[in-house]
Amino acid sequence: MFPFRNILFPDDSLNAQAALKYANAFAQHGHGQVVLFNTQDAKTELASKIAQAAIDHDIDLITVALRDRNLLTRAFGSSLAEDIIAESPCAVLAIRPPQRDFVNGQSEIQLERVLLATNFRPSSVAATQLATQMANQLGAELHAVYVIGDYFEQISVMFPEGGLAALTRLRSYVQERMANLSRGGGETHIVEGRPYQEIVKLADTLQADLIVIGTAVHGSLFGSSHVLGSEIERVIRNAPCPVLCVPAARVVTPLPALVTQIVPQT
Question: Domain of 187?
Fold first, then answer.
């Protein structure tokens, strides 16, 4: 998975130079190449065409820069960058200048701290592997965070006879899984609250250079296209550093599953 060798750069954003800088740096590190995708040539289904280009050119990474969006576009549609992330068959690095930068003027990668956001679902397996590889090969600190969503706390308040027991089991399960993860090196963090807020806050506190997150997607209610979950979108939009989005298996719904028993995953 890492190092990346073939990097796709869609030349579309006002912040295109920021995305190109990262594309060049990763290509240089992996002794690979940057493939330029001219978005002006594509008129319809642009995100799908970029995804197909990634398959055709055996792309390992796509670098995209996010544009600022107004309230109207936020309410009625995703950005091109978010469409690319949702459709991509490979990892996508999302950049939103100005952010903490880990590429210097000589296109050298200077990665010191990586924050992996995990939920121990299948959607986070590939992200965990990639974050570990990058930290090991680049000599960076690896931090992993699990956020226990505040909806569990709400359930325990509404249904104390059952919700509190489920929350207690979840806390115990997360502590066990994070302890196992820490044995492979790195530091672990367990926090409770709104997932995107806690991830962004921890990244800022740690002065993380990169957030790595698994990007399971779901079908849009307004068509057959795939879209990101709202928490992932908010992490990307509010992160103090670039976000590496690692695709996983498609899921049916973005809503958290309410379970009566936690089943360990191997």
Answer: 111-210+259-266
Last residue of a domain, one of 110, 141, 167: 110
Distances (CA, A) of 15 to 18, 68, 81, 94: 6, 10, 12, 11
Is the omega angle on the peptide bond into residue 3 within 30 degrees of 0, that is, cis?
yes
CB 148 within 8 A of CB 173: no
Pair (99, 5) in one structural domain: yes
User: Both 1 and 80 in a single domain?
Assistant: yes
Give residue for tokens 């000589």: 106
Q: How far is CA 84 from the centre of its chain?
A: 13
Question: pTM for the complete prediction?
Answer: 0.84
Residues 264, 151 share a domain: yes
How many whole angstroms separate alpha carbon 241 and alpha carbon 197? 14
Per-residue pLDDT tens digits for 35-74: 998 876 554 578 889 999 999 999 999 999 987 654 444 4
* Residue 70 phi, psi (nearest 5): -85, 175
Closest CA to 96 of 69, 115, 56, 74: 69
Q: Strand 243-247 to strand 91-95: parallel, antiparallel, or no bridges (unpaired)?
A: antiparallel
pLDDT tens profile 200-223: 999 999 999 999 999 876 655 445
The number of distinct structural domains making up the chain is 2
